[in-house]
Amino acid sequence: MGSVRILSDEDVAALFDWDGAIAALRAAYGAPASEAMFPPRLMARGDGVWLRTLTGVMPGSPYMGAKMIAASPRARAASYLIPLFDQRTTALRALLAGNAVTGLRTAATSALAADLLAVPGPRRIAVIGSGFEARTHLKAVASLGGVEAVTVFSPRAASRAAFAAEFAGQPFAVAQAESAGQAVAGANLVLCAARSRDETPTFRGEWMRPGMTVISIGSTLPEQREIDPEAIARADLIVADMVDEVAHDTGDMIAAAREGVAFADKLIGLDALVSGAHPGRRSPGEIALYKSVGAAIQDLAVAGLCADRAEARGAGTTIPAFAPPIDKGK
């Protein structure tokens, strides 16, 4: 019957690397895909909890699969599961604990976007936030090279210090700012990876300057906020991993639309940027914004990479397959 490979978060972390993940994502986003291959996410809501499901059939890959996210915003907790199925046989090939995949694929996709959007030259990075997402985003972008300096802001001084200490010994210095505006001053690439507890935007459009690239990953639901409407108004180009969901299901874009900010004509998909269907920036002085809600193609690209490496290296744990695939022809 074969076997199913189970990968823990620790297994994923050991199998993962930024270069491989960014390359896998570049290939996935650059491959032709129909809308039917990646349908809109589904969200089931209960009393203070929700279950989100992202599904996809990967182009140019043997896998199809899903990611399930069980979350309790009140408890500030979430857990993730990713099953991978063989497209040819429909057999379940792998089960991955998705916590590590989620954080790593988000950062790797942001790094891909930054690589395509950022103006060539030394990168002076501002990081708003100091948690797991902020750390992984800086690691992902730093893997591209060219980082000249980094400034971090987080409300707690101890968190800023811990963030800076984690990157000690890197070829770039990490300075600590006492406000988000101070962190952004002088930066040409901004990584927004934190929301406030009361959902007040943590990044403001008044801080934008010509040539800046802003990565925003913190507002994925209607009730969440990370950047203000002025930032959306001032951006010359907005790139989204999921265009419809970013436009209609994120608090930032909903707030901008409510204030009369028009953005439809400057909003494109990351796939169009990767494939070359859209040229990206028209001039170095344009301001570019990348907004992410997360997408099945990201989860499945990174999960597939880790599953293939686990198979080759004998990593993880295997269990007997649950049952042979059912022949629907009988």
From TrEMBL:
The keyword Lyase applies. Pfam families: OCD_Mu_crystall (PF02423). GO terms for cellular component: cytoplasm. InterPro entries: NAD(P)-bd_dom_sf (IPR036291), ODC_Mu_crystall (IPR003462), ODC_N (IPR023401). Keywords: Lyase, Oxidoreductase. Its EC number is 1.4.1.1, 4.3.1.12. The keyword Oxidoreductase applies. GO terms for molecular function: alanine dehydrogenase activity; ornithine cyclodeaminase activity. This is Ornithine cyclodeaminase/alanine dehydrogenase. It comes from Sphingobium jiangsuense.
